[in-house]
Write a structure and sequence with these properties.
The complex is a heterodimer.
Chain A (H helix, E strand, L loop, with lengths): L13 H5 L2 H12 L4 H4 L8 H4 L2 H5 L4 H9 L3 H7 L12 H5 L6 H14 L3 H7 L3 H10 L19 H6 L2 H6 L17 H13 L2 H8 L1 H27 L1
Chain B lengths: L24 H14 L3 E4 L8 E4 L5 E4 L4 E4 L2 H6 L2 H12 L4 E2 L9 H7 L4 H18 L2 E4 L2 H16 L1 H14 L8 E4 L5 H7 L1 H12 L10 E4 L3 H4 L22 H6 L3 E3 L14 H4 L1 H20 L3 E4 L2 H9 L14 E4 H8 L18 H7 L4 H20 L3 H11 L28
Parallel strand pairs in B: 1-7, 4-5, 4-6, 8-9, 8-10, 10-11
Antiparallel strand pairs in B: 2-3
Helix pairs in contact in B: 5-6, 5-7, 6-7
The structure holds iron/sulfur cluster (SF4) (2 copies).
One iron/sulfur cluster binds next to helix 5, helix 8 and helix 9 of chain A.
């Protein structure tokens, strides 16, 4: 049977096989050079406690123990292969972290791997994150990840008939919340312009915009239109206020 | 690395319950925080008497200080966007208890939901977003209260990374400097404690009980027969696990205390089930793009188990994603012969209901897809149909006025109706034209 002798029984993809060895080493080194890596990985008993309590393990071919073991064995081929689809099964619940007798943090290793996968704009990552574009647009341009208008019943028919009720007259319903929360429909709350502009600065300085451009150029353009418009408005306002 | 004493580190003596580790790496964090402050690198934003602090135990027996008043509300995008009754219930209690607070538009989300879901961020960006929000709170003199569990977990983790990694501090400092988000003498502002709203509820559980006795019971509400299954949120208690309340009253200090303690205090029946430790299936990305997983996990590992083992009337949560996952993924169970209807809401929403808050106007159950009606009946809120009609009539009235463009009348209506004047108490007299979201065509709300 093709696969790994120690339990990673997913055949290494042809794509991974065709990537030059040096490139695979470079990517894994990028993961290992993250300052968190040493804080997330110690010894491993191979006890499987992490996998036994992992929610994703119950429904996907996925095991946190496997990830920890591959790192300890420096199994470049398997780790590189995992970085394309395997790691995206993790639910980021950190049950593995609280339960591991060695205080390993497999969920933490996954987040480093995901970050590197995104930074390297792997094709599989691009495809995987396509349906996530709406969320990225919202969070990058407004600083809010979720808003009432994103919960359209058509997108969520499995949430049942009460959803239809919920969304009827949603604007008026939100206005009727008797506190200043949840009143907006297209953002979670009204974000001040200066706050959004500060956040854009953070995205720019920390390479997030650059990361997005590589991941999804179309989405990046839409986001940048909003960003630039807001930045211009802020500058104009500042000028006006100075004149006043 | 600091080994000195820290004014932020206090232990109960003797330990209030059997503990696994008498000390955690958190001790070291507080010592290091103190040392960095002495060196002038950071400013620790302290909890003072003005914040009416209450002390609670954490998992290692450390005493955590929970500020209860003069709070800066760090809202949750998932709650405001999707569960408006969640923050509304928090604000309802704040008003009931007469606590001063600030709810500003000068806040972004923590952006950690996105990070855990898509990996499209990094520790420097997450730190900068956190510290910008914290600096804003510090500037106003109000202490940050974090509504979202993921923000809470992520901020606890980010704080640890910052305190122990000079490189991270060095990377984030120039960004904050450019934003004017350092102190005048160039220090990073870090709060003494990262505090989740559920800890605030926990610290206020006796006051909540008093309110229930006084106002809830006077309305004929009685929760003593309500069977409650507790679901603790992963990012709240599994991330930086030592920094969350534990208490001898709750499973002898062997399980997270917040939420369970307030439900017990109200006199409801906390029922135990075998998969209490499991996550909900939310998965950050999964709830949106791997829905079969979320649904299957929620149905099979939680809803079915809770129904079969304990027949709960209600699942009480303390975070955004879990609440959504459990209440939205019940109906679909019909397709699998696995329909186990149960009410789902957060600790603060249930507490508000018990204390007599309007189920629709305040607790906003219109939004909730779970089977909450039998719970209302069982609690003695038997007039819920009238209350629902009252709410629906209000909504229709507002919708009609808006449709007809009668804005003056609408404003008049809200003058009488609103319990809280919009943005009247921001730190700087926020002007609408300074909104990043209201005027943009794409986000015109
Ligand atoms: S729980 Fe820890 S020690 Fe056990 S297999 Fe998982 S990572 Fe290794
Ligand atoms: S964080 Fe990921 S690997 Fe760890 S238990 Fe949760 S789903 Fe499994």
């Amino acid at each position: 049977m093709e696969g790994h002798p120690y339990g990673y029984n997913i055949p290494i993809s042809e794509k991974t096989k065709s990537v030059p060895w040096e490139e695979k080493v470079r990517v894994i080194e990028e993961v290992k050079s993250d300052f968190r890596y040493e804080e997330f990985l110690f010894g491993c008993l191979n006890c499987g406690v992490c996998t036994a309590s992992c929610p994703s393990n119950r429904f996907f071919d996925y095991s946190p123990r496997e990830i920890v073991q591959r790192f300890l064995e420096e199994d470049i081929e398997v780790l590189y292969d995992m970085m394309h689809e395997y790691i995206w099964a993790c639910s980021q619940c950190f049950t593995c972290w609280i339960r591991c007798p060695f205080v390993n943090n497999p969920g933490g290793l996954v987040i480093i791997m995901r970050e590197v996968a995104v930074r390297n704009a792997f094709e599989a990552t691009k495809d995987l994150l396509k349906p996530y574009g709406r969320v990225l647009l919202k969070v990058m341009s407004t600083g809010n990840q979720l808003s009432a208008d994103m919960l359209q019943p058509d997108f969520f028919p499995d949430w049942g008939p009460k959803m239809l009720d919920n969304m009827e007259n949603v604007r008026a319903k939100r206005m009727a919340v008797p506190f200043d929360v949840g009143k907006a429909v297209k953002t979670a709350w009204e974000v001040s312009l200066e706050t959004a502009v500060e956040m854009y600065h953070i995205w720019r300085e920390t390479g997030i915009f650059e990361m997005l451009e590589k991941l999804d150029p179309n989405l990046y353009n839409v986001i940048m239109d909003i960003v630039e418009e807001n930045e211009e408005r802020w500058e104009e306002l500042m000028e006006e206020e100075e004149e006043e | 690395m600091g080994h000195g004493k820290s004014p932020y580190l206090k232990y109960a003596d003797p330990a209030p319950f059997p503990i696994l580790n008498k000390h955690s790496h958190y001790d070291h964090l507080f010592e290091e925080m103190h040392e960095l402050e002495e060196k002038g690198e950071i400013l620790v934003y302290r909890i003072t008497e003005e914040n009416k602090p209450v002390q609670v135990y954490t998992r290692t027996g450390r005493i955590k200080t929970i500020p209860t008043a003069k709070l800066w509300h760090h809202k949750s995008c998932g709650q405001c966007g999707n569960i408006p009754g969640y923050p509304a219930s928090i604000f309802w209690f704040m008003n009931k208890f007469g606590y001063d607070y600030l709810n500003e538009p000068h806040q972004t989300s923590c952006t950690a939901w996105n990070y855990h879901g898509s990996g499209t961020s990094n520790p420097v960006a997450l730190s900068a977003v956190w510290l910008r929000n914290m600096h804003q709170a510090w500037k106003t003199g109000y202490y940050p209260l974090i509504h979202c569990g993921t923000s809470f977990g992520s901020y606890k983790e980010t704080r640890e990374q910052l305190i122990f990694n000079k490189e991270l501090r060095d990377a984030v400092k120039p960004i904050l400097k450019k934003l004017g988000r350092l102190t005048e003498d160039g220090r990073i502002v870090i709060p003494q404690e990262v505090v989740h709203y559920s800890e605030w509820v926990h610290a206020n559980r006796h006051k909540i009980k008093e309110l229930y006795e006084k106002e809830g019971k006077a309305k004929g509400i009685d929760v003593s027969n309500v069977r409650v299954a507790i679901h603790n949120a992963c990012h709240v208690w599994k991330m930086m696990a030592d920094d969350y309340p534990y208490d001898p009253e709750v499973y002898g200090g062997q399980r997270p205390a917040a939420s369970t303690a307030v439900v017990k205090n109200l006199g409801a029946q906390v029922v135990d089930y075998s998969t209490w430790y499991d996550c909900c299936g939310f998965g950050f990305r999964h709830i949106l793009t791997e829905r079969e997983f979320t649904r299957s996990f929620a149905l099979q590992r939680k809803l079915k188990v809770i129904a079969e083992e304990v027949k709960a009337d209600l699942i009480v949560t303390h975070d955004t994603g879990c609440t959504t996952t459990f209440e939205k993924n019940q109906w679909i169970g019909k397709a699998h012969g696995m329909y186990n209807p149960v009410a789902v809401m957060s600790d603060v929403m249930f507490s508000a209901l018990a204390c007599g808050a309007h189920p629709f106007k305040v607790v906003q159950l219109y939004w909730n897809c779970s089977n909450y009606e039998p719970l209302l009946e069982k609690m003695g809120i038997t007039n819920w149909k009238e209350l629902r009609k009252e709410w629906e009539d209000t909504v229709k009235h507002i919708a009609a006025l808006e449709k007809e463009g009668k804005y003056d009348e609408l404003m008049e209506f809200f003058k009488e109706y609103d319990l809280y004047e919009p943005y009247s108490r921001t730190s700087d007299g926020f002007k609408r034209r300074r909104s990043a979201t209201a005027d943009m065509p794409l986000f015109k709300s």
